[in-house]
Design a protein that fits this description.
Layout: H1 3-16, H2 28-38, H3 42-45, H4 50-58, H5 72-75, H6 77-85, H7 97-113, H8 116-132, H9 140-152, H10 162-165, H11 172-175, H12 181-191, H13 201-220, H14 223-235, H15 239-271, H16 281-297, H17 304-307, E1 322-326, H18 341-354, E2 359-363, H19 364-370, E3 380-385, H20 396-408, E4 412-417, E5 434-435, H21 446-449, E6 453-456, E7 463-465, E8 484-485, E9 494-500, E10 505-511, E11 517-521, H22 546-560
Parallel strand pairs: 1-2, 1-3, 3-4, 4-11
Antiparallel strand pairs: 5-8, 6-7, 6-9, 9-10, 10-11
Helix pairs in contact: 2-4, 2-8, 2-15, 4-8, 7-8, 7-13, 7-15, 8-15, 9-14, 12-15, 13-15, 13-16, 14-15
Length: 562
């Protein structure tokens, strides 16, 4: 076996034995904690005896990944009272914006008290919640590959499958690689170092509040490179691509290490004062303003997922232009249109480009602030929306009103739905026909859905059996949609897709008779869910597979037919 392949196999074998979680880094939290301890100032290094180091790395660096309450034996009675007062009821709450601030305040108090056990625990817990803000699987594409394509064992172009790639998508797969990953991690920490700049309490708390958004921004510019490097390492063992993985993964880990170290330095300084560490209304307002600015200013091109697919509207009107709506990547699992929707949206755009179909990419923010395009410029909009809700100043009501106006002017809309609600004004014609079983995420129970067949009422191949279960063991990318249509005289609909389980048939995709509105379930356009293709031609460049392409283009043709 070539040396490069042997190294990859060794890393893979070690990584497969490591614990993994759906929240963010799995065993990578151990690596962040080790790197922090190694770089602490001498007085704090003395706190970490061999036993406290073991506990910090193996146990307390995962402390926030539990829904258990805080225990007096771990943190003390006074800390529990302060945490409850801050709205932090269980350990997992430390992940939230206000939870990170509360945890930092406990670190400062532990330093004031001089309790070494509490100091070590709160340093470890803080390293965890900071690291989670830029964890690799918080990138929508990497998350989908880890928790969707991995369990489905989607094949790589030449050899292997994504179940082998997934372990490399945790920091530990690089940080413990003696062939170069460990060195890349260490270099990134040195390169991105953040000293204590003398900041005051409000500035420190504001930065902690913004870690979620800033970490997502840092991560989303690297996720595609990381997935490409990891997949190619398995598929061909190319050393250059493995180095690409090391470099970008190392920077994500370093992002967490340098912020944790800077925060510890600030905490040490603040512990020598009597300054209260508290989240005030003024700081909350400043954070809201900062997030609002970030949401307005961020370019779609900063998301590596989108960078190569963006396409402006043509200067002159062209027939049949399909507009695909995109939303940048925000804080983990935050979105107006749904966290994982970004992957199917990207796959849709790339497939339209591959087919030579006229299309344009539209920024959801510009549609809200500047209005929708005229239907003669963009006769059809495709909106992948596994959720639909307000997000900061991104107003669902404003979007719905603009979309309804676009339809009234002659535009057509294909809405790819998940478990979220539909725009009430725009999709009022569907309201009387739309049903779901209470709390259900699919039209039928998962075990029956997995054995079901999708039948299309479209030209071409009409039957698509399920190849995989949409209810994957973990993740926020699950292609779930509970909606079933039951047309009535008051709500007539044209069938597009039915779900057949043998004993039952459910209408799950439909359009209005005037062909202005259509709804498809997310599982109908999710690559590798339906039987037809089980190989990913280009892992870091998502496109629709054969079943999803046939369904989507068939519906587009129906909507745009003269």
């Amino acid at each position: 076996m070539p040396r490069s392949s042997a190294i990859v196999v060794a890393i893979l074998a070690a990584s497969l034995a490591l614990p993994r979680i759906s929240g963010a880094w799995g065993s990578g939290h151990d690596d962040v904690m080790r790197a922090v301890i190694e770089r602490l100032p001498e007085d704090l290094r003395a706190v970490f005896t061999p036993e406290r180091t073991r506990l910090a790395v193996e146990k307390h660096s995962h402390y926030p990944d539990s829904f258990e309450p805080f225990l007096p034996a771990d943190v003390g009675e006074s800390a529990i009272a302060a945490l409850l007062d801050a709205g932090v009821k269980v350990r997992y709450d430390l992940h939230h914006d206000h939870g990170r601030v509360a945890g930092f305040a406990r670190l400062v108090e532990a330093l004031r008290e001089g309790n070494p056990d509490h100091i070590a625990l709160w340093i470890a817990a803080h390293s965890h919640v900071v690291a989670d803000m830029a964890a690799c699987n918080h990138d929508p594409l990497v998350h989908t590959a880890t928790y969707g394509w991995g369990p489905w064992k989607v094949k790589l172009p030449n050899r292997g499958d994504f179940s082998q790639v997934a372990p490399l998508l945790d920091l530990s797969g690089s940080a413990r690689d003696p062939a170069g990953g460990a060195e890349a991690f260490a270099r990134a920490i040195d390169r991105l170092a953040l000293p204590d700049d003398g900041r005051d309490v409000p500035r420190q708390i504001l930065d902690i509040l913004l870690y979620g958004q800033e970490g997502a921004q840092f991560c989303s510019s690297r996720g595609v490179k990381i997935l490409h490097g990891a997949a190619t390492s398995i598929d061909s063992g190319d050393p250059k691509d493995r180095a690409l993985l090391w470099e970008n993964m190392g920077e994500l880990g370093a992002w967490a290490v340098v912020r944790t170290l800077r925060d510890i330095a600030v905490a040490q300084r603040l512990a020598k004062t009597d300054s209260p560490i508290e989240l005030t209304p003024a700081i909350e307002t400043a954070a809201q303003e900062a997030v609002a600015t970030l949401l307005r200013d961020r370019s779609l091109a900063e998301d590596a997922l989108y960078a190569t697919i963006l396409r402006e509207l043509p200067a002159k009107p062209e027939p049949g232009v399909v507009g695909v709506v995109l939303e940048p990547t925000w804080d983990m699992n935050d979105a107006m249109l749904g966290f994982s929707s970004r992957v199917q949206s990207t796959a849709t755009v790339r497939t339209l480009a591959q087919l030579g179909r006229p299309h344009a990419t539209l920024d959801v923010r510009r549609l809200i602030t500047d209005g929708f395009p005229a239907p003669d410029r963009v006769p059809l909009l495709i909106i992948v929306a596994t959720s639909f809700r307000n997000y900061h100043w991104l107003s669902a009501e404003t979007f719905d009103a603009g979309l309804a106006g676009y339809v009234a002017d002659g535009g057509r809309v294909l809405w790819v739905a998940g478990t979220g609600v539909l725009p009430k004004s725009t999709f009022r014609p569907f309201a009387a026909a739309l049903t779901r079983t209470e709390k259900a995420t699919l039209p039928v129970p998962t075990e029956r859905f997995f054995k079901a067949t999708l039948r299309t009422h479209l030209p071409g191949e009409s039957e698509w059996a399920m190849a995989n279960s949409p209810d994957t063991p973990a993740g926020w990318q699950k292609p779930l949609c509970p909606w079933v249509f039951k047309p009535t005289n008051d709500a007539p609909l044209v069938p597009l897709i039915t779900l057949e389980t043998g004993s039952e048939t459910h209408l799950v995709g439909a359009m209005t008779p005037d062909r202005r509105l259509a709804i498809l379930p997310i599982y109908a356009v999710t690559p590798f869910l339906l039987r037809g293709d089980d190989r990913c031609p280009s892992p870091a460049e998502p496109a629709l597979d054969r079943p999803a392409t046939a369904i989507l283009t068939g519906v587009i043709d129906r909507l745009l037919a003269p």
